[in-house]
Amino acid sequence: MTITFDTNILLNYYQGRAGVPLTSAGGGAPAKKYAPSAPWLPGAQTASNTPSLMTTAVKNAMLGRKLVNEDAAQLDLAGASADYKKLFALYQGIDTLAGVVDQIGGKNLSSTDKARIQSVFAKGLSEITAYTDKLDLDQLRLTTATVADKAKSTVGVTRAKTDYTTPPLVSGNVSAPIDAFQGEVKFNISIKRVNVVHDVAIDLNEMGATPRSMSNVLSYINSKLEAAEVGTRVSSLRIPGGDRMIQIGGKATKVGVNPDQWAMKFNIDSGDTLTFSAPKTEPAIYLAQSVGNPDPDGKSATKDGVIVSQLLKVQTDTADVTPPPQPTGEANYVDGRVWAKDMEKSVGTVHATQVASDGSVYVLADVSDKVSGQTIKGDQDVALLKYDSAGKLLFTRTLGASSNATGMALAVSADGKIAIAGKVTGDLSGAAEGALNSGATGSFATQSDSFVTVMDGDGQELWTERRGARQNDEATSIAFGADGSVYVAGRAQSSLPGTTGLGGWDSYVEGFKADAKNKVTTLFVQSVGSAGSDRPGGLVVDGGSLILANNESGRAVIHRFDISGGTPVETATRDLGDLSGGAIAGLALDGGQLVIAGSAGGDSLSAGVTTRAYTSGLDAFAARISADLSAGAGDRLAYYGGAGDDKVTGMALSEGRVYLTGQAGTDLPDLDAKGKKDGFLTELNLDTGATGFTRRFTGKDGYATPTAIAVDNSGASALDRLGLPKGTLDMTDSVQLSAVSAVRPGDQFQVKGGNGGTFKTITIEAGETMESLVTKLKRGLNYQADVSVVTSDGQRKLQIKPQNPRNILEFAPGKSGRDALALLGIPEGVVRTTVLSKDGKATSADGKGTFYGLGLDKAMNLSNAEEISHTKAELASALNVIRTAYKDLKEAATPEAQRKAEKAKATGNVPAYLTNQIANYQAALDRLGGGG
User: Fold this and answer.
1) 3-state secondary structure at position 776
2) Half-sphere exposure in the Cβ direction for 1 (13 Å, CA)
3) What is the pLDDT of the chain when averaged over all its residues?
């Protein structure tokens, strides 16, 4: 049976549903055209509308042919503006580039295939950008970047805080006694105001039989503050519980509402400075680790592991201080753990931790993406994170490397300065350069150089030195001298300036000294080691001497240098023996003695009396010898391990107690396995070989890899129960842009103000602030812009608007590797003022063609699934902008009377007869489709 129907009914049905004017499929004169047909409209024989043509276009792109071809853009309206041809050519070019992106999702692609697609995409994006930048249009204006009525930086300077909030102390019933308030809870609050210090002693035992609920405890504390005649008060803060979600069939499903939580909030009176302390303390360990299964599907090529970096605080002794109660439902809890903080997903391996004299904790880590709101320049940067003893992140500082950097060493001086060291490739603007550095360009550009950066206590950079060899080198240990000098140990594959190569990787020691203006002098550089491959394992300063623990061709060798004369003179060497596949992981001074720790694959080490025997595989070890490296009766050596390989990754020393952490093997003495890959922490008594506080622990997915350790001799106290930090509250952050973002001195961006002006360069200087940048921008924009600092989301940010409605402001990035625009979060593109036209549309106030911004991110790439998704969204958005520009052009070319008539037809009522025909047609379709 043949079923027929009038095609006019189908057309009218479609047009009625789509809200377009009703026309006839067969008869009647066609409507007059006022604009050529767009390549994306139905029926257009273009790559944007025909799969086979798109396949051909993508194949041509993969063969290296251009994406944008104005000659291929056909117009079906004689005399139409050339703007249409250019728009259509650009549209089809971007659409083809989107087709190239689709190729990366193909099956069974080799790494070579993916690399080729990525290369074609990068070339195509450059072509699209270059074409758009040179595009000359008559009736509109187009930019690859954004268009807005004002520009505002995403980077801001945090305003001074006026309160401090603890972590939640109770969940649910806030009126009941709270576990954290029970037992002996004593601490002191010192409030300094106008050089007068008010000491307020808090002892919850003074509450007597009064239940220690939130309101009762707060009333007690506030009564003590009121009695001291200070304005600071404490209140409770409700934290809404939110929805309770569980996974059902792989989908998040709401099953209820979580109970509200409650925290304490100290409201600090203006002018008050608060310091918290406690009369009784115990040592606290700060442990950094990576947790998570690195390869869930067992296929290394997929890189599907989700690894999280954590910082843990552990109380090792409970003789004088009762530890906080175990939080309900906390994953992978281990006895003694005070808290565990997950870091941002962009934070990679933590290489070092250090405790400052004020009780704060510094963490040195690699970061692969934006961290604490700061955009990084390259693939990997170095971040210094500062936490208080309650686990609150105080600040984040990034190095600002243009390509790749790794932070490998961290030291804190007695006066609060911070030194970091590591390796860097690519540009590092503002750093003092050495004579043989690999450099940012040239044949050695892929080789790493050593770097050293010193900051003040606020994390503000004082100086950076980049000192390297032609081939790879890196700084792995760092220490301060008593006079503020900085000493570094590292290794290099070729000779450093002033040294002679010894063979393989050579270890080196180097000294730096800064004057009052932070002008740095290199004191010395000297190679140390053997003819084989060497690696430093630790560095300490002992008065006028420098002591280096060195892995030399597999042996543990200690060197002592006299540096009092300016040039290192080796005064003693001691070979501790064969590490048998292990490595030195730490070196520390304990009075007049040295403690060396690491892993060893046998019992070949020699350091006096062995108080705990080697077991098998790789064992942890710690040795104590005289600081002058002479053999003595007090020399001790102890091993710790089980049948598997136990690898030490860090050592901390507290009043003679040695703490080791690392990766646990198959078994450890008296400790059961917790997961698939566990970490361990042990206190080792070198005199007796006995272990004290010892824990085996795991993490997310059953994996935990400790990477760094630090100890605070008095870091644990009753303050931990309340989530309060030890020391003085720091309520302000740095105002320097190089501290709150990844910009470095010497970074630049371009601005143009007024109509017909030229671009001017804005260069970031050392100590640059929002206020100083405002002055530069006003001048650079020819005083045609209103540049100010505004407060947004608790931060002071830069805002830029045209001063005159007819002025156009433009912002462009700086040189590759030194671009400050993206790091400050100022959008690349055009800032202009708009006015509303008669029909309610926003148009440029200068009376010229409307500006359209494609908003294309020039950093788009296909490196991973997240970037691919981002790229697809960016290209789709750009295509939509061009469609909008075409629509606006078409409307402008259509007479007003015609537009009104078309609007009336599109919004008019469909005639009754047509409604009936549509209903009958829909019923027929339902029958043919089985009722669908």
Assistant:
1) helix
2) 2
3) 91
Give mean pLDDT, residues 789-795.
91
DSSP states along 867-895: HHHHHHHHHHHHHHHHHHHHHHHHHHHS-
What is the C-alpha radius of gyration for the chain, rounded to an integer number of angstroms?
A: 34
> pLDDT at residue 3 above 60?
no
Residues in Cβ contact with 181 at an 8 Å cutoff, skipping those fewer than 6 apart: 169, 204, 212, 213, 217, 721, 722
Structure token pair of residue 763: 């260069």
Q: How do 545-552 and 555-562 pair as beta strands?
A: antiparallel
Q: Which residues in 627-743 belong to E strands, given as ranges?
A: 636-640, 647-654, 657-663, 679-684, 691-697, 704-717, 727-728
- DSSP letters along 560-614, please? EEE-TTSS-EEEEEEEEEE-TT-EEEEEEEETTEEEEEEEESSS---SSEEEE--
Phi–psi pair at 912, nearest 5 degrees: -60, -40
Enter the tokens of residue 254: 């709401």
- The strands making up 461-467's β-sheet, listed across from edge to edge, are 404-412, 418-425, 449-455, 461-467, 432-433
Distance CA 82, CA 139 (A): 10
Alpha helix stretches (DSSP H) within 280-427: none
The rounded distance, in Å, linking the Cα atoms of 583 and 597 is: 9
* Angle of CA points 121, 126, 132, to nearest 5°: 125
> For residue 582, what are the CA distances in angstroms to 228, 618, 636, 650, 691?
58, 7, 19, 13, 21
Q: Which of the 8 DSSP states describes residue 680?
A: E
Q: Which band of pLDDT confidence, cut at 50, 70 and 90, is reported for residue 1?
A: very low
pLDDT of 53 reads 84
**233, 222 in Cβ contact below 8 A?**
yes
Number of Cα atoms under 13 Å in the Cβ half of residue 80 = 23
| Structure-token pair, residue 44 | 């257009």
Give whole-number Cα distances, 23 to 5, 11, 29, 637, in Å.
17, 8, 10, 95
Beta bridge partners of 350: 365
CA distance 875 to 94: 7
DSSP 271: T
pLDDT tens readout for residues 455-505: 999 999 999 999 989 999 999 999 999 999 999 999 999 999 988 888 889
**Model pLDDT for residues 746-767, shown as the tens digit of each residue:** 999 999 997 777 999 999 999 9
Closest CA to 775 of 752, 759, 798: 798
> What tokens appear for 277 in the block?
């302390």
Joined together, the tokens standing for residue 541 give: 């300063």
Nearest to 218 by CA among 166, 171, 279: 166
**In angstroms, rounded to a whole number, what is the distance separating the alpha carbons of residues 333 and 327?**
9
Q: How many helices (H) and strands (E) does the chain have?
A: 12, 52
Sign of CA dihedral 428, 430, 434, 436: positive
**376: part of which helix (H) or strand (E)?**
none
Residue from 675, 676, 670 nearest 693 by CA: 670
* Cβ within 8 Å of residue 847, ≥6 positions away: 806
* Cα separation of the two ends of the chain: 21
What CA–CA distance (Å, rounded) separates 475 from 487?
A: 10
pLDDT confidence tier of residue 164, bands split at 50, 70 and 90: very high
Amino acid residing at 154: T
Task: Give the whole-angstrom CA distance, residue 410 versus residue 351.
Answer: 9
What are the backbone dihedrals phi and psi of residue 3, each rounded to the nearest 5 degrees, phi first?
-105, 130
Q: How far are the Cα atoms of 108, 302, 370, 397, 828 from residue 379, in angstroms, in the given order?
A: 27, 19, 11, 17, 21
Contacting residues for 494 by C-beta, under 8 A, at least 6 apart: 469, 470, 471, 473, 501
pLDDT at position 349 is 97
DSSP assignments along 281-304, one per residue: EEEEEEEEEEES-S-TTS-GGG--
